[in-house]
Amino acid sequence: MATEGHDLSAYDAESLTGCSSFRIGLAVAEWNAEITHALRDGALAVLEKAGVTDVKVHDVPGSFELPLASQWLLRHAGCDAVIAIGSVIRGETAHFDFVCQSAAQGVLRAGLDSDRPVVFCVLTDDNIEQSRARSGGKHGNKGVEAAVAALQMALMRQRLASGSNWGIGL
Ligand code: DLZ
Question: What does pTM read for this prediction?
């Protein structure tokens, strides 16, 4: 799953046509705020470019809290999709593994249980240099990639729900 050679910020803006009416939630972990704020800003730039104006941004203490916050944004704030933003940096204890596992499993579950896209925008790096490289540095910004994924999935759900003839026909 290397991001070497993969620009996290490359996307086709035309694929996001028709997203302007969506309400999008962002849950942003305060741990490693230098990184999570850069990811958040990357995501917000994509949403703005796609014409999305209804955006709910909420801070949470750490990545462990992202699943529940995502579920609340879907269930209580009526969001069409949520971007769960965090940054976990490996330390000397097993905390890294517990926080990463819980965030990943919980974000997946929040989406499946709510039948809405919840995008995993959590960097899990060995050191802050790796995180910087993926939050606006030489590998681009994973916040951009996450916002594109959230909008594409919300569009897919909307099109399938409306029964429109869309997708690859067989
Ligand atoms: C406790 C903790 C540690 C050690 N490291 C991180 C981290 O690198 N990134 C992150 O987002 N959160 C970290 N946390 C905090 C937990 O996510 C959580 O907020 C607390 O354990 C409280 O539930």
Answer: 0.93
